[in-house]
Amino acid sequence: MKMFSWFLVVSLIFVMSAGVMAQDDEEEFEKDFMEFAIYGGGAIPMGGLSDWTISNDITGSEELGAKSGWDIGFDVGHFLTRSLVVGLNVTYAQFGIDSDEPAVATMNHQMIGPAAYLKYYFQGESNLMPYVKGQVGVDVVKFTTRVMDPNIDNGAFEYRELSYHPGLSFSFGGGLFYYTHDYGGLYLEAAYRTALTSDVISNYEGEEYTFGETAAVLDIHAGIKVFFGSDE
Length: 232
Fold this sequence. Notes:
single chain, 232 residues, mainly beta, Porin, 8-stranded antiparallel β-barrel, two-stranded antiparallel ribbon, 1 helix, 15 strands, 63% strand
């Protein structure tokens, strides 16, 4: 709940700042009212995720690094000016596990998170339009973890996909949008995303597990975008 409150506060500041920027632009023009995009692509774990090791006093330590995976998501945004958009998105990512342990062969690591974004399009005369994009939100890591299950006779180790508490996340990147018709088109984008998850915890059968790493991912997306309406 505390992390969610932080997310709301930061998102509010994010949106208010965008509003102030929009008010400074007094030029009259026709602009789109909103955008909607769906996308998918690759998610490349970086830093500590690629050699992620979970450890505690009961299970000891074990390396269960994340391998490159895929993600999907959507954006919904509102044009404050002809070039500036503020919006919300949700991204889901799934990774393989770098382990020879047969028990984890059918399991995965996952990340999911909502975010508020601010995007700026560099308008021109051609159909190709570059942009930059920044985000702030929360990410929930759901990683396969070696745990102790006391419900099994004499206790035993097993693997569970544990959901850890949310961590504040940030992302910055850019892309290229290409108009295929007057109301939308295709785009490619890349972004570096990081989440403050080194101290987040998960509880399983009375035991506490600490994630222990900052979640960092390079996202590479391809998507379809549609623009709705216009505002004089």
